[in-house]
Amino acid sequence: MKKWEMARSLLLVIAGALIFMSFRYPMWSIYLWANMYPNGIGMSIYAYKPADPPDVEEMDGGMHELNVLNHYIGMKPISRKLPVFTILPTLLGLSAVLLILSAFIRRERFFKVALWVFLGTAVYGMVTFFYRIYEYGHDLRPDAAIKVPPFTPGIIGWNRIAQFETWSEFGWGTYLVLIAFAVAWGVYFLDRRFRKRALAGERA
Q1: Which of 71, 75, 100, 102 is the most exposed, fewest CB within 10 Å of its CB?
Q2: Contact at 8 Å (CB) between 186 and 36?
Q3: Could you list the residue range(s) of the whole structural domain that residue 144 is in?
Q4: CA–CA distance, 182 with 148 (Å, rounded to integer)
């Protein structure tokens, strides 16, 4: 049991650290190619901001060029002032802190609170992401210079929007959060199993 307690603490600290590490990497990126952009333009979404993709220097442009294109097709500019870029990093940071504290506070109720906060954060992030993706592609100005039918940008893989070929992918920011999520919930279920075994041993 003592070995498990040490492993439990270490795993929860790792889970919290992975969440903090996720801030360094994009959570999602999209790239577009057309005749006027043979090297492509693109944008990456971090937990706390939209930004140029890491490989923007090899491309024809980044977030600025994408927003210029959005203007011509009647799409709203992608803004850093969206509430999600304040709320999501706050919730992720809170989840990380609670998980790290759970490594040292041996109270099941506290650990459950940390897990449910993390779960709520994940649900909020996913719902907001899919909603914004849909909203941006469907809330187009009718007086736009270039008429494009409402669309939903591809979430992952190759897609086509009007004359543009697009590639979308999740980044290490998302993968690190998913790994942390799996580790945290794995610890919870293993912890319950070890507790039950310990109680059974005491009764025997």
Answers
A1: 71
A2: no
A3: 2-198
A4: 40
The CA distance from 98 to 87, in Å, is 16
Handedness of CA 62, 65, 68, 72 (dihedral sign): negative
User: How would residue 146 be classed by pLDDT, with cut points 50, 70 and 90?
Assistant: confident
Residue 83 falls inside a structural domain: yes
**Residues forming a β-bridge with 41:** 32, 61
The confidence band for 151, taking pLDDT boundaries of 50, 70 and 90, is confident
What would the mean pLDDT of 132-151 be, rounded to a whole number? 88
Give the residue ranges of DSSP H helices in 73-171: 84-102, 108-138
Domain assignment present for 49? yes
Q: Which residues of 74-86 are buried (b: 16+ CB within 10 A; e: fewer)?
A: bbeebeeeeebbe
Residue in the block written with tokens 């979404």: 45
- 204: in domain: no
Local structure of 153: helix, strand or coil: coil
pTM: 0.91
For residue 145, the number of C-alpha atoms closer than 13 Å in the C-beta half-sphere is 5
Q: List strand residue ranges (DSSP E) for the chain, in order.
A: 28-34, 37-45, 50-51, 157-161, 164-170
Domains contained in the chain, number = 1
Give domain status of residue 203, yes or no: no
Residue whose tokens read 């610890």? 187
